[in-house]
Amino acid sequence: MKPLIILNYKLYKEAVGTKALDIARKISKIKNDKYDIVVSPSLCSMKEIAEKTNVTVFSQHTDHVPLGAHTGRISPEELKRINVKGTILNHSERKIPLKYLARIIEQCVKNKLKTVVCASTLSEIKKVAELNPHYIAYEPKELIGGNISVTKANPDIIVKAVEMVHNINPRIKVLCGAGIHSKEDVGQALLLGTHGVLIGHSFVKAKDPKKFLQDMLL
Asked: Which of 64, 91, 195, 201 is catalytic?
């Protein structure tokens, strides 16, 4: 499997409305055969990007409900129907109680959606790993949105996270997030045993997101 790079648009003004599709179209033109690249746009932009580009789209959140009377919810079944391929779950900006997280993962697997579950501590990683998601993204909350990468701030804890997950379920891949903003950060994350990175503000707020991503690719 290729290393995974997830680009989380969040809800930044630089990546909503027509800008969301424009960024995805530019990303689709990047020549790359070393990484799997995923965009995670705002919920209002997912369907259009999935329809009008060849970029893989993940949702920023998903709920544990089937199709039906669930106002304001996001169903894995609908995500599958609009060609969304996976979802980020339990981000520090959208935490999910463990009992619901387990049900969401189960429903996503049933609908063949990839699950990327965020965790901010080793104890949370242990609990999440026992739910058997496809990926766990380790993101220390205090570093999210900053310019100091966890690969520099505390590389040893990444190694511990990878080892912990491997001991629980070696099929789960570990990603690294929080403060990732350079190709050196990506390279270090891979050297520490992760399977890729989750990138947010540094990508979205770059003057030229396409060039930023090209420079990130080793």
From this structure: 91
- The residue type of 119 is A
139 is catalytic: yes
Q: How many domains does the chain have?
A: 1
Residues 119-158: tens digit of each pLDDT: 999 999 999 999 999 999 998 766 665 566 777 777 888 8
- Identify whether the C-beta of residue 40 lies closer than 8 Å to the C-beta of residue 60: yes
The domain containing residue 38 runs over which residues?
4-216
70 is catalytic: no
Amino acid symbol at 24: A
DSSP 8-state code for residue 58: E
CATH of the domain at 172: 3.20.20.70
Q: What is the DSSP code (8-state) at residue 119?
A: E
Per the residue annotation, which of 124, 134, 139, 195 is the catalytic one? 139
